[in-house]
Amino acid sequence: MTEQNVVVDDEVEVLVVGGGPVGLTARIMLERWGVSTLLVEKYRELSPFPRSRLVNVRSMEILRGLGLDEKVESSSFRREFGQIRFRETLDSPDFAGEDWVGVKTPVPESPVLGVVTTQDRLEPHLLGGASTPMRFGAELVDLTEESDAVLARILDHEHGGHRQVRARYLIAADGAGSTVRHLLDIGTDGPGKIADVTTLVFDADLDPWCAEYPAGVYFLTHGSLIPLYPEGGWAWVGPTPEPAEHDDWPGYLNRLFNMREKVAIKMLRVQHWEMKAFVAERFRHDRILLAGDAAHAVPVTGGLGMNAGIADAHNLCWKLAGVLRGWAAPGLLDTYGPERRPVAERTLRQAVANAQLMFQVQARRQEQLQTGAEPSERIELPWSERYFAQLGLVLGVAYDSDAVLPDGTEPPEPEDPATDYIPTARPGHRMPHFPLGVNRSSLDALGEWFTLLTPDPDGWAGQLTPPWPLRVERLTPAHLDTCGLGPRGALLVRPDGHVAARWADGPRTDSTVREALEAITGVDATG
After folding, report:
1. Residues 393, 55: contact at Cβ < 8 Å?
2. How many angstroms separate the CA atoms of 506 and 491, rounded?
3. Closest by CA position to 178, among listed 66, 308, 263, 281
4. Which of 4, 77, 271, 311 could potentially form a cystine with 116 if both were Cys, beta carbons 3.0 to 4.6 Å apart?
5. What is the DSSP secondary structure assignment for residue 79, as one 8-state letter?
6. 474 phi and psi, to 5 degrees?
């Protein structure tokens, strides 16, 4: 119930808690829907730490829809950095290597490429992508649930004191240690903390060992070496050392590099953190919804966690907008957890499997060296050119919920669902990419609306009824097989790019589309 005599300082439709990539992305999307939003971030600035390393191909598709893909790409590494290299020490030859699929070279399944960049380079682009209010140094410390709103108590670290914010809904994107999740007493499934990790950010001239052999990550015997920015800077990420090592970080790094000559190192930042692995027991609590690391903490191996969080926001924000604008019933939000939680579980399993494969690489290398192999000899990787070929995981996401109308067809069955992606327009799946014109993809037809794609717009013209935002896009006969349509068929695609319904042979009645949208959104347009 509402606290008595509470003075409300701000009222908004959605309060976003957490100013990382997920919260910032949600802020952009909600602004594009015209939703009044306030984002609060407990720290006084964007994170200065590099953190996440990869913006994958699906996230870049989402950023393309927000008009940010070119900006993000402009501050990212060149394509040749879209690979990993394995070495014993910094000055030893590679004993293995692999490309990130969808990063180094184009893939026919998408109009974009993923990029190698750092979170502290990505976040300013996301911050500039919207103009709705954002408050740094503002920490959520308590929640009160009302019948039609959430009342949040915000501690102002900059000026002192507290403010009360009332919001119709709240998105908790406040990280793996989420205050919101703890206040709601939402448990987690999974191992939880799996390692204490340290990130060392430093400047050094490593060109003699790396310039001719670019990589997004160098996996060394003791930790990972990461180039931070195209213009320079490095980070080492590995197990947190004993406290005795903390007094001389340059010396510690030189011992880890284990080279014939020492490197002059200028330390910039040190961060100790916990690597966690879990999925929240539920993603929704009435008017409060968890997203990103607050909902699922994923080990860093493979660069999956942040990207899964961006997809959370993409799935959630159009549903919130629909409820707030009246063209969707509150029950549509019930589909958020059933759609995104299975994806989080699958992503977590893949990240753990990636980590296990990395350990296997090092174990194979040690076995090889113990048999007298030369340092220049390469090893056979414990996978067959598929480690970072995770298009199945990121493009092959399929939803099964009340926001999808099945058409009775069977899903494609790839040999390896994590790595292999088979484009399909079956309901629930991401709309496949194909050209709709010069430099225009089928994905470019999507946006803050439902999209009806059909080779016969005139035959479906009478189907377009309010209150839903809906646009029609003409398909050419060349794409009918890709979409599984006949000459009078149609696809109904959701604002998040997933197919909501498919009619292979034309409208069944004069109200086919209306009935579908009513079923998906829970709003009766005739009532």
Report:
1. no
2. 10
3. 281
4. 77
5. G
6. -80, 135
